[in-house]
Amino acid sequence: MRNFLIAFFTFYSCLLFAQNTPKIIIGTVFIDSIPTQDVHIINKKLAVGTISNENGRFEILATKNDVLLISHLNLEYKEFTIAQENIQSKNIVIYVDSKTHMLDEVVLERKKGIFEIDKDIMPNNAPVVNAKTLNLPYANSKPKEEKTVRIESGIAIGIIGLINALNGKNKQKKLLKKIKVEDQNIEKIRKHFTDGFFVQQLKIKKEHINSFLESCISKGIVYLYKKEKVLELTSVLIENSKNSPYLLENEHIRLTQK
Fold it and tell me: Which domains does the chain possess?
């Protein structure tokens, strides 16, 4: 009898643990019966979030009775509660009605330059104001024409462009462009997971989230994000956060390294 009770309580505890373990739920969001992209879905209990793709589909971790917060530019906030049948089928469908915004009439006027004369204010015989009448030093100067050189293949190359190439400025522009693209991808990934995921789940300090993501670029997080491999991307972020110097508990180590 004793062994039976032990086995029963063990089985019951495992069953409760399994029910409370977050599972991956696949869902689709419809706004006015149309699958909609860029809808934000946030699990308020687990503090994790995701964004729907061009087909309105998304994946998110959830347990029974978790509340999903649904938000989009074209609708008011909506809450969706995860039921047991959603956990069993690992699938949810969310229908939302769009919100119509009524805007006041706006009249746009052309922006005037500093030398433009307002006929309603200035008389017809008002003096002409320009660089020449103000005797500015560049009043009579003409724009310089860029000189070009012609190489054997017959292609004309500007002197300034040639000098910039020799000085490595083109390489600098490419590097700056690459950095800009990486920054844009980092912002997209951060927006996809929300700050709550990094702070509460990964224990990364909020002001160091971007630095943490930059350190993970070499692990292929941008590629995984573009291919919508959310689960693999999540695993990479979790694995790299374990020994990250940007963890709250490693804050003193990071400051010492500085």
Answer: 16-96 (2.60.40.10), 171-257 (no CATH)
d(CA 171, CA 175): 6
**With a threshold of 0.70, does the pTM exceed it?**
no
Residue 54 Cα distances to 51, 67, 100, angstroms: 10, 24, 22
What distance in Å separates the CA atoms of residue 75 and residue 42, rounded to the nearest whole number?
15
Instruction: Encode 141-156: b = buried (16+ Cβ within 10 Å), e = exposed.
Output: eeeeeeeeeeeeeeee
Scanning the chain, the segments in alpha helix (DSSP H) are: 2-20, 84-89, 159-167, 169-196, 209-215, 221-226, 230-241, 251-257
For 30-88, the pLDDT digits (tens) are 988 889 888 889 998 888 889 999 999 999 999 989 999 888 877 767 888 999 898 88
Nearest to 92 by CA among 54, 71, 61: 61
